[in-house]
Amino acid sequence: MKTTDIPAEFERMRSLEDDEVRGAVLSLLDDPAFRKVVKSVVKGVPIWVHKLYTRRFKTVNSFQLGMICPFLIRILKNATTGFTNDLSALPDGRQDFIFLSNHRDIVLDSAFLDYILILSGKKSVEIAIGNNLLIHPWIETLVRLNRSFIVNRSATATELLESSRQLSRYIRFVIEEKKSPVWLAQREGRAKDSDDRTQKSVLKMLAMSGPDDMSLSERLQSLHICPLTISYEYDPCDWLKAAEFQLKRDNPDYVKSRQADLDNMKTGIYGFKGHLHYQVSAPIDNEIAALDSSLPRNQFLDNVAQIIDRHIFEGYRIYPCNRIALDMLRGDNAESAHYTEGQKEEFRKYLDGQLSRIDIPNPDWEFLRERILTMYANPLINQKSIME
């Protein structure tokens, strides 16, 4: 799609189009801050070589294939023990879906989905990203070049309603007019305890757009929501999340700094993750249609959220560490048939190592340990809850 085909109201938030790729790449390579990042990642290569290499990038797809995919391949090689996925539930011949996903990593959740889609010959997703993460101008250019659109996390109370409506209109425009997929987290920010629950506010936002004669049920059905479950064997940010839990417990006014956001992004990208798995469910259009549309609005949205949560819980890949964490948390051996003593000892060493990285005032080690164990136990607890 050409930039001239996109409504002007989306100008400041939209992702970049193919006819903007070359200019965006050159602006990145002319930015001193971005050049510093490039030199730290690709050592010994002059910028003029990068400019020559990037002349081949004439579309967003070619940029992602030439720049993003090699970077992700390197991450998978150096920071994981394997990566699997199952997208078989998606209908053939269509790509107009919202992948509504649990959220594990600030950068990589949507990036690895893109990796799967691009290598299978499908369109990459447009990605919702909060403006709170756009710490430097080059970051905004880079993410918009990588099909991200900007969510205004700094809107005032009076601006919030119109900001949400505009976001909803843009997502519908991508689905209905561009016929492209969208990645959206099921909640604002990551579930730091891995208790993945769809926020009703996300569904309310999605339902703000559409023709006036469409019902709430029809508006949600028309966006073709596909629950996506992302499973990490190990979360490299677990110790950072545990520390944040205590900092907020000890000081209710604690607000994470921009530097802390950067530290989380860097740790999440480069830290060890073990095995990763992406499990996609079929669109839940029919399940939404089967709900009682006469229910009060909030109750109807609660029911839709429960449908999404059930699919996400079903899709978890359960690893030995999840079962070990649950046993350690409860002080029993109920899950011991599913892991070995060697695996348990390995996880204990891992836990001790992650706790040793925490550097905060007056660390409450028992609380911090419980927080990390809960992060690993919750996917199993949630999956069990829908099997009983």
Overview in brief:
The chain has 388 residues and is of the alpha/beta class.
Q: Overall 3D geometry?
A: globular
Bin the strand percentage: 5-15%
Please mark out the parts with pLDDT under 50 across 5 or more consecutive residues, or reply none.
none
CATH class of the largest domain: Alpha Beta
Which architecture of the largest domain would the CATH scheme give at its second level?
A: 3-Layer(aba) Sandwich
Sheet/helix structural class:
alpha/beta
Number of domains: 2
Strand count: 7
Termini separation comes to: 48 Å
Q: What name does CATH use for the topology of the largest domain?
A: Glycerol-3-phosphate (1)-acyltransferase
Outline the structure in words:
It is a single chain. The protein is α/β, with parallel strands linked by helices and 388 residues long. The chain folds into two domains: 61-233 and 273-317, Glycerol-3-phosphate (1)-acyltransferase; 237-270 and 319-388, no CATH class. Helices cover 51% and strands 10% of the residues. The protein has helices at residues 21-29, 32-41, 47-53, 60-79, 108-119, 137-145, 157-176, 200-206, 216-221, 238-250, 258-270, 285-289, 297-315, 320-330, 341-355, 365-385, and strands at residues 80-86, 98-101, 126-130, 148-151, 182-185, 225-232, 274-280. The protein has a seven-stranded mixed β-sheet with strand order 1-7-6-2-5-3-4, sandwiched between helices. Strand 3, helix 6 (137-145) and strand 4 (148-151) form a beta-alpha-beta unit. Helix 1 runs antiparallel to helix 6, helix 4 (60-79) crosses helix 5 (108-119) and helix 14 packs across helix 16. The longest helix has 21 residues, at 365-385. The radius of gyration is 21 Å and the shape is globular. The relative contact order is 0.12. The model has no long low-confidence stretch (mean pLDDT 92).
